[in-house]
């Protein structure tokens, strides 16, 4: 009989906090949303996620690859071609992150109005 630990993200020492921190990162969410459309080249990812630097994109992709969420494909061409895609595990994350992105877009006007009202009251 195998033992499954009781992971609890609210417990300070729980390793699930690392995963939560990674997926709560804005760059991770945007990269996963883009990769949900299919295998994508590095330069196309960078163009799709406006404002991300090459360094941050590289670091985030490495972290996602380390966690088993993204696979990196290198093609022996000149110039070298590198493509990224979600793994099976990464695809399970795409739905929730895409839903959060859709929520953010759908409620932007309301959030901006609330911020303005809040700032005016203070």
UniProtKB/TrEMBL annotation:
Q: Name one GO molecular function term.
A: DNA binding
Q: Which Gene3D superfamilies match?
A: Winged helix-like DNA-binding domain superfamily/Winged helix DNA-binding domain
Q: Do you know which Pfam families this protein is assigned to?
A: HxlR (PF01638)
SUPFAM superfamilies xref list: Winged helix' DNA-binding domain
Keyword line = DNA-binding, Transcription, Transcription regulation
Where is each HTH hxlR-type domain found? 14-112
This chain's protein is named Helix-turn-helix domain-containing protein
């Amino acid at each position: 009989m195998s033992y499954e630990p009781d992971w609890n993200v609210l417990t300070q020492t729980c390793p699930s906090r690392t995963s939560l921190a990674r997926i709560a990162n804005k760059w991770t969410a945007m990269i996963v949303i883009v990769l949900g459309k299919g295998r994508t080249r590095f330069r196309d990812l960078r163009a799709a996620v406006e404002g991300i630097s090459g360094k941050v994109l590289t670091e985030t992709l490495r972290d996602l690859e380390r966690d088993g969420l993204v696979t990196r494909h290198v093609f022996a061409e000149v110039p070298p071609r590198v493509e990224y895609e979600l793994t099976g595990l990464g695809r399970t994350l795409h739905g929730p992150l895409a839903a959060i992105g859709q929520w953010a877009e759908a409620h932007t006007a309301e959030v901006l109005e609330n911020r303005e009202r809040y700032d005016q009251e203070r």
